Amino acid sequence: MFKNIRQLTPFSLMLLTISFIMSISQSTMTTAYPILMQSFNVGATTVQWLTTGFMVAMTLVMPLSPWLLDNINLRPLLNSIVAVFLVGTAIAMLSTNFLGIIIGRLLEGMAVGALFPTFQSVIMENTTKEQRGLTMGVVGLVMGSALAVGPIISGVVLQWVSWRALFALFFFALLIVVIAFQHVIKNTHPMQQSNFDWLSATTLIGFGGILYAIASLPSTGFNLNWWLILIVSILLLIVFVVRQQKQSHPFLNLTVFNYQGFLPGLLLTGISYSGLIIATVLMPLFYQRVFYLSPLWSGLLMVPAAIFLSQLNPRAGRLLNQIGLKKLVYIGMSMMIIGYALLAVAGTTSWFYGLVAAMLLEGGNAFVMMPSVTAANNALPKNLVSHGTALITTMRQVIGASSVVVATILITYFNEHVSIGHSLVQTSGWFIIVPVVGLLLATRLKNHSQD
Q: Which residues belong to any copy of the Major facilitator superfamily (MFS) profile domain (predicted)?
């Protein structure tokens, strides 16, 4: 693993380090929910906006990343992204009311939404197709590990220190990194100046609206306001799609869908991300609600899965060139099916089965997510890589958020009839459908989709 990381350029390492620090912020808040609910006297529905708002802000900004890359040099662009994140983190850290934390999280989400597709595009553009599998395996290691270790870090910090220390950790770590590595930032992306299309930017609210509708469904249900938000959001996206096809320099060049192999890669990325994010949702509930373990121990029990993921990601990247995406997807989706099945059959028997299941779910992700991203972008010419990456990261968020909502609905529904343990078991059983769909989709792939 470390040998693979050493092969990257200093600039790529800096991008990965910044991304790792900012990525952790996605999954740390859930562990702090009970403490924040008590500190600010807010309910569960309100406190969830720390995650929901973050995801909506991410999704709104992601489609803008190709324009940002084409019109702003990398040094000021990256420094601006980091600055927005630092400002948001400082606001949340110092806030004396819950609204301040929400505002801080929205700014963090905007920064992460701009960074994710940007740094992946830059790394991919500066890597040959032969090396992309290995390089994106390392990227997957960083992103997947960050999501997996978020609850671990928050569990350890909250065991002994205030929730404000979580924000302070992100703030100072990121500040040190960005100052120390200013000299390695290079403007490697060619500029293609174009005017900012405000109408297209406005219609992008549709992405955020759909994500908001998905995330708010468990608390609001199918009421009139929910349907209005969903319909208006879909109409805005239709306007966005039509306008992109008429623009000479669109925010998102939708011709990427004309290239064979792109769409399957996009869908497989979202499906595999679903398995990873559901593992981070289900497993703490199993550990804390079924086996009554502390947040600290529930976080520590996620460590083996995170290590397993970090070990497999670079190997999966190397295997992409050797055996092709199709066989990797078969391996990864089979691991996820076994993981969900183990939870469904023996999830309440012992926490050890949960540990093994988490390793299978996260390990399966390593064989699918970043290899699929690589294969999808390998199908595109270099000038469309940033557009393809932006679409993939945006849809990955939508699919991931949808999975969390479905899991929440299933757990709540089953818990009305059975114990929390059995509701988690039944939810795990239903989620076997997701990797089964992934297997069926893999049958449509060529043996070597990365060619």
A: 11-446
List C-alpha distances in Å: 211 to 10, 29, 33, 117, 217.
35, 19, 21, 18, 10
Taking the C-alpha atoms of residue 344 and residue 425, their distance in angstroms, rounded to an integer, is 4
Of 170, 191, 206, the residue nearest 18 (C-alpha): 170
Distance CA 100, CA 94 (A): 8
For CA atoms 6, 177, 363, 131, give the dihedral sign.
Answer: negative
In angstroms, the CA 357 to CA 355 distance is 5
Torsion of CA 417, 420, 423, 428, to 10 degrees: 180
Q: What are phi and psi of 146, to 5 degrees?
A: -60, -45
Both tokens assigned to 40: 């600010």
Mean pLDDT for the stretch of residues 220-243: 91
Q: Are 390 and 65 in contact (CB under 8 A)?
A: yes
Residue 145: CB atoms within 10 Å: 20
Rounded CA separation 447/451 (Å):
9
**Alpha-carbon separation of residue 230 from 75, 113, 224, 409 (angstroms):** 38, 22, 10, 18
Spell out a b/e string for 275-310, using b for 16 or more CB atoms within 10 Å of the CB, else e: bbbbbbbbbbbbbbbbeebebbbbbbbbeebbbbbb
Side chain identity at 429, as an amino acid letter? G
Per-residue pLDDT tens digits for 131-189: 777 777 777 777 766 766 777 777 778 778 888 888 998 899 999 999 998 888 887 77
Choose which CATH entry (3.55.50.30, 1.20.1250.20, 3.40.50.1820, 1.10.290.10) describes domain 2-194+249-442: 1.20.1250.20
Q: What is the DSSP letter of 190?
A: P
Provide the CA 121 distance to its chain's centre, in angstroms.
16
What would the pLDDT profile of 360-399 be if each residue is shown by its tens digit?
998 898 899 888 888 888 888 888 888 888 888 888 888 8
Question: pTM to 2 decimals?
Answer: 0.80
From 138, 110, 142, 143, select the one nearest 124 (Cα to Cα). 138
Own/partner pairs, 382-388, CB within 8 angstroms, 24+ separation? 382/125, 384/253, 384/255, 384/256, 384/259, 385/121, 385/124, 385/125, 386/65, 386/66, 386/69, 386/70, 386/117, 386/118, 386/121, 386/125, 386/189, 387/66, 387/252, 387/253, 387/256, 388/256, 388/262
Closest CA to 252 of 261, 243, 264, 260: 243
Burial class (CB in 10 A: 0-12, 13-18, 19+), 90: middle
